Amino acid sequence: MPALPVLASDVTVLHDRLLATADWPRQAAAAAATPLWQWIEVNHRRNALLWAEEDLARRTAVADVEIAANKRAIDGHNQARNDAIERIDELLLVALALVDEASARTDAPRSTVPAGARLNSETAGSMIDRLSILALKLRAMREQAARRDVDDAHRAASHARAARLQEQRADLAACLDALLADAAAGRAYFKVYRQFKMYNDARFNPALVAEARSRG
Question: Are 36 and 92 in contact, with CB atoms under 8 Å apart?
C-alpha cells in the first residue's frame, strides 16, 4: 500500500504559515520541496489574491474602470486556482498509484484503480482548495474578533463564527485524510475533473466570440 502523499494537518499548517508570512501572497513563497507541495502553495496563493480582489471589487466610491480591473484580475486568479487544483489531483493520483503517470495529464488517463473501489464525488484537490478558503475565512474572522472599533457584540459574534469555522476545517481535514487513506488502501478513488472554464477562452465565451465577429 503506498504511503499517504500528504496529511491534512500538514496542509493546514502550510496554509496558516503562508498567511502569516510577510509580503505573501504578493511575493511567492520559496520553492517547495516537491511539485505537489508547490501546487498546493500556488492554489493557496491564488485564493489569497482572489480574496483581496473580491474585497476591492465591492467598493462603491471608485471609478468603474477600477472595478473592471478587479473583475479581470479575479478571472485570472480563479483560472490559475482551478488549474492548480487539477495539478494537485494529477500528482496525488500518481502518488497513490491510481493512474498511469505517463497519461496523468492527458484527456484519457489510464486508470489503475483496483476493482471494487468506490468513486468519491469530490476530489482530494478540491478538498485542499476548500481548506485553503477556510484558512482565509478563519484569518479574516479572527481579525474581526480582535477589532477595537466595533462593539462587544460584533467581537463576540466574530469569535463564535471563528470557532465554527475551525470546527468546519477540522471536519474537512479529517475527511481528506480518510479519503486518501481509503485511496491508498484501494477502497476509494477520485478522478481529475477538468474545469473547462469557458469565460476566459475567446473561442468559447459567446460574448468574446461576438466581439471578434464584429471586429472582423
Answer: yes
Give the pLDDT confidence score for residue 145 in this predicted structure.
Answer: 97
- Within-domain flag for 213: no
* 7's grid cell: 496529511
Report how many domains make up the chain.
1
Residue 205 CB partners (closer than 8 Å, separation 6+): 198, 199
Taking CA atoms, 164 is separated from 11, 18, 129, 142, 161, in Å, by 19, 22, 19, 12, 5
Give residue 23's domain range.
Answer: 8-208
For 130-188, give the DSSP string: HHHHHHHHHHHHHHHHT-SSS-HHHHHHHHHHHHHHHHHHHHHHHHHHHHHHHHHTTSE
The reply to whether 25 falls in a domain is yes
User: How many CB atoms are located within 10 Å of the residue 35 CB?
Assistant: 12
pTM, rounded to two decimals: 0.91
For residues 52-57, average pLDDT: 95
Residue 216 lies in a domain: no
Is position 120 within any domain?
A: yes
